[in-house]
Design brief:
This protein has 383 residues and is mainly alpha-helical. It has 13 helices and 8 strands.
């Protein structure tokens, strides 16, 4: 029995064999060099290859070409097969795009055994220059892949962890992705001219602070008209092949119930009445306990990108400043702060995992007020 040949189990549960043979020391770095081979279906196959390489090392004819090298793209496919079951479908879609559009474009054709810290440093610098907002994410996912390669003995060290991470360039932009009270009222007034569904959707966003996906995932069974509360326990996202997916948990996996004002609850009742009439006319059963609050023409969940179309149409038709859909969540937080609501209560209502997230929003949305306060003080002192 050869002690250098080890049995291991693949992520899919298959038994395989691998080995590593000492070759010598690198003339450049002085580090030990090993010939590594894995993936043998039987001990006998591994032993044959081991004997061949050992013989060439002894004869001083070993070049390293006898070892089958693995391209980064090949290892990525193996890693993805195990990683896909650990994340939400929407996250997986994003990760695949990161690799397809960036990581594999720059590293996919390289043999993972020959990937150097110098090459990783070069690629990281390129990402930082070309993709200042996402380069950190690309480094994170590259590390996940290369850490996997270390764990399963493709390589000894992760070269991406040896780089000097480029400094993120901070953009000092004024944060304006929220409405003032007056701007919000003007937007909601304009949205009434669309239809009751659209008006109800934006009123709900602005008065609840829900995320877009949370509002679109709502069912009527989540709304308690007796206690005027809404249970937020799922979210909508885009999955594989651009399909709409309803995830049975929120973004931060923190389900919550929030209280709502009487006018919004009344508006929801009016919309439910209108929706039932419309669905009955189209041949659907609107009394199903699984009925979603905001449906499309096929009585399915509205696609997330459609609400951005509603938003743009309302603003363009009425000459209003347009904020992103997530900006309605910032607006809700801003107005809560204006109303004197404690930060911890705002955190709970918005479903933030960390109070730091709430504090960051507070810093953004109150910056303009702080500037005005400083100006008012200066003017007072000069008079």
């Amino acid at each position: 029995m050869n002690n250098d040949i080890k049995e291991y189990t693949t992520p899919s549960g298959k038994k395989r064999y691998k080995f590593a043979i000492y070759v010598g020391k690198s003339e450049v770095t002085g580090e030990s060099i090993q010939a590594r081979k894995r993936g043998f279906k039987s001990y006998e196959d591994a032993l044959k290859c081991y004997a061949l390489i050992s013989s060439k090392i002894a004869d001083n004819t070993y070049t390293g070409l006898e070892i089958k090298n693995h391209k980064v793209s090949d290892v990525y496919r193996v890693w993805l097969d195990s990683y896909k079951d650990t994340v939400k479908t929407s996250t997986l879609v994003n990760v695949k795009q990161f690799f397809k559009n960036h990581i594999l474009k720059d590293l996919g054709s390289y043999y993972i055994e020959r990937l150097t810290p110098f090459k990783c440093q070069s690629v990281a610098q390129k990402w930082a220059l070309e993709l200042p907002k996402t380069f950190n994410t690309l480094i994170i996912y590259s590390n996940k892949l290369l850490d996997y390669a270390v764990r399963f003995d493709y390589i000894r060290k992760n070269p991406m962890r040896m780089i000097i991470k480029p400094k993120k360039q901070v953009e000092h932009k004024e944060f304006t992705d929220f409405y003032t009270k007056q701007e919000l009222n003007a937007f909601l007034k304009a949205s009434k001219n669309e239809n009751i569904k659209i008006y109800t959707f934006f009123r709900l966003l602005a008065y609840s602070g829900m995320r877009k996906g949370e509002a679109l995932a709502l069912k009527w069974s989540d709304i308690d008209f007796t206690s005027s509360t809404i249970s937020i326990n799922k979210t909508v996202s885009i999955g594989n092949k651009h399909r709409v997916v309803v995830n049975n948990t929120t973004k931060t996996k923190r389900n919550r119930a929030i209280s709502m004002d009487a006018r919004t609850m009344q508006l929801l009742k009016e919309w439910r009445f209108q929706q039932r009439r419309d669905l009955l006319r189209l041949g659907f059963n609107p009394f199903d306990k699984e009925q979603v609050v905001f449906q499309n023409f096929d009585n399915e969940v509205v696609r997330p990108n459609l609400v951005a179309v509603w938003n743009k149409r309302i603003c363009d038709k009425n000459g209003l400043r347009r904020i992103k859909i997530h900006g309605f969540r910032h607006t809700h937080a801003s107005l809560l702060f204006d109303a004197g609501v404690p930060m911890e209560d705002v955190k709970q209502r918005l479903g933030h995992a960390s109070i730091q997230t709430t504090m960051d929003i507070y810093t953004h949305v109150t910056k303009d007020k702080q500037d005005k306060t400083a100006l008012s003080f200066a003017q007072y002192m000069e008079n």
